[in-house]
Amino acid sequence: MQFTPDEIDIKKIALEIENIPGVKNIHHVHVWQINEHDLMFEAHIDVSEDLKVSGFERILGKIKSILSGYNISHSTIQPEFTVNDSKQIIH
User: Fold this and answer.
1) Three-class SS of residue 46?
2) Among 6, 22, 33, 91, whose Cα sits 20 to 30 Å from the Cα of 40?
3) pTM value?
4) What is the count of structural domains for the chain?
């Protein structure tokens, strides 16, 4: 692992993801450059309802589309269901 590139605005990415229907909150967000060309993204996603796996797969597809716009090619997303506490972005 190396570092978060200066041109990556984690708060902007988080806001775009939180605007996806069904996403309640994003937290525990990390972005780092893993080698000369590849960026890694990690986050926990609270969803607004208890979804089936197929419902989360649709959200995940939208998240990956957003990330590709930032040239992020690798991601680890942890879904969290029916969580009622408020969390903040950590990076």
Assistant:
1) strand
2) 22
3) 0.84
4) 1
